[in-house]
Design a protein that fits this description.
Number of helices: 15
Mean pLDDT: 94
CATH architecture of the largest domain: 3-Layer(aba) Sandwich
Strand order of the largest sheet: 4-10-9-8-7-5-6
Shape: globular
Strand content: 15-25%
Radius of gyration: 22 Å
Low-confidence stretches: 1-14
Oligomer: single chain
Distance between the termini: 66 Å
Largest sheet: 7 strands, mixed
Number of domains: 2
CATH superfamily of the largest domain: Type I PLP-dependent aspartate aminotransferase-like (Major domain)
CATH class of the largest domain: Alpha Beta
Length: 424
């Protein structure tokens, strides 16, 4: 059944595509104007979280200033306005990923909660039992490993791992060998946050579906870098976080096919997910309310909707072209540095360059270039199995967004050379 708000709230007219003008784009992000240690900020940690355009900041401020009220529960003016703004955001996300219905869009705190929701409810629904198998890959984020390990421990199921090759590509032939009659679920990352690998998810989904196996896609690193059409992919579930696509923290999306979501029990109990409560029995509401217990992150949901507006104001092909130019330029420049080695050279990559330098710990790289206002990520990036795969304690990672520039890449290169000269 469609969410009632879908019949009440009409989708806004899509914005016209803006010209991809990097100077104008950077003006949209107030934090990019600040200095760090007296130097102009160079923010290259976008795989961890992206910065927020002024429109998203304004939207959350506007909600708390003029619309603050609980949603779905009040007949008064503020509640109706807040509800409309929140449900409008759901429709925007539905359109952005081309879901069949807005009721397939579940608001959660982020991709981590979405995966935990699925692991918990699939376990309770009896979809995965003793001796059954779940397939993931060697490049997964911890959020797509640990929930399945916990589920396997509870249900005496087995976790199977598809290996990757030295370049960071999935060995598809090994996946084909692993999937069998015991496989009950495949859960795989769309784009690796540590390697930048773009996985052949459509092929993986097709193979799984040929055996009747549902597929979860972790799209946290994909929705901001490329067009995602969940109907075209034919995935059963797709999850992502708002803060990595220019939206607020503490908000994310679980997309699921209607039939799949209807077959799962509620994740949490409380207000807004019920139809009727008595001490003898409680009946639950239709989708999406069934999975949205309690007061949600209303401001975050509204802000995420505006982040979708922001992304849709550009032709996605222009974003892809710009970010590919950044990635290719950074790869070329970094490979010219003696002693530097890039980790992850997949055939298809997106917006991430992870690297190590002979004799220098990644933490030292990150600490020293931070003195010049350059922000990168160092560590295992919540992908410790990848570090083990390459026999590394950590990597340094530069990750790009639509507001980054070639000049910022040049500053990164200068900063790395400064690090090397200090250690020499």
């Amino acid at each position: 059944m469609q969410n009632e708000s879908e019949t009440v709230v009409k989708s806004r007219t899509p914005l016209k595509y803006r010209e991809f003008n990097i100077d104008q784009i950077r003006d949209d992000f107030p934090i990019l104007k600040r200095t760090v240690n007296g130097k102009q900020l160079v923010y290259l940690d976008n795989a961890a979280t992206t910065q927020k355009p002024q429109s998203v900041i304004d939207a959350t401020t506007h909600y708390y200033t003029f619309e603050n009220a609980n949603i779905h529960r009040g007949l008064h003016f503020l509640s109706e306005v807040a509800t409309e703004s929140y449900e409008q955001a759901r429709l925007k996300v539905k359109e952005y990923i081309n879901a069949m219905s807005a009721s397939e869009i579940i608001f959660v705190r982020g991709a981590t909660e979405a995966i935990n929701l699925l692991a918990n409810t699939m376990c309770r629904a009896g979809i995965i039992g003793e001796g059954d198998e779940i397939i993931i890959t060697e490049m997964e984020h911890h959020a797509n490993i640990v929930p399945w390990q916990l589920m396997c421990e509870r249900n005496k199921a087995k976790l199977k791992v598809v290996p990757i090759d030295d370049n960071g590509d999935i060995i598809v032939g090994e996946y084909d060998k692993l999937i069998n009659d015991k496989t009950k679920l495949v859960s795989i990352v769309h784009i690796s946050n540590a390697l930048g690998t773009i996985n052949p998810v459509k092929e993986i989904i097709k193979t799984a579906h040929s055996r009747g196996v549902p597929v979860i896609i972790d799209g946290s690193q994909a929705v901001q870098h490329q067009a995602v059409d969940v109907q075209e992919l034919d995935c059963d579930f797709y999850v992502f976080s708002g803060h990595k696509m220019y939206g607020p923290t503490g908000i994310g999306i679980l997309y699921g096919k209607t039939k799949m979501l209807e077959n799962l029990p509620p994740y949490q109990g409380g207000g807004d997910m019920i139809r009727k409560v008595t001490f003898e029995k409680t009946t639950f509401d239709d989708l999406p309310n069934k999975f949205e217990a309690g007061t949600p992150n209303i401001a975050g949901g509204i802000g995420l909707g505006v982040a979708v507006d922001y992304l849709k104001s550009f032709n996605m092909s222009n974003i892809i072209k710009h970010e590919e130019e950044l990635l290719n330029y950074a790869t070329e420049k970094l490979l010219q540095i003696e002693g530097l080695r890039i980790i992850g050279n997949a055939k298809k990559k997106s917006s991430v360059v992870s690297f190590v330098i002979d004799g220098i710990h990644p933490y030292d790289i990150g600490t020293i270039i931070d003195t010049d206002g350059i922000a990168i990520r160092t560590g295992h990036h919540c992908t410790q199995p990848i570090m083990q795969r390459y026999n590394l304690p950590a990597t340094a990672r530069a990750s790009f967004a639509l507001y980054n520039t070639l000049e910022e890449v040049d500053k990164l290169v200068v900063g790395i050379k400064k690090v090397i000269s200090m250690f020499k």
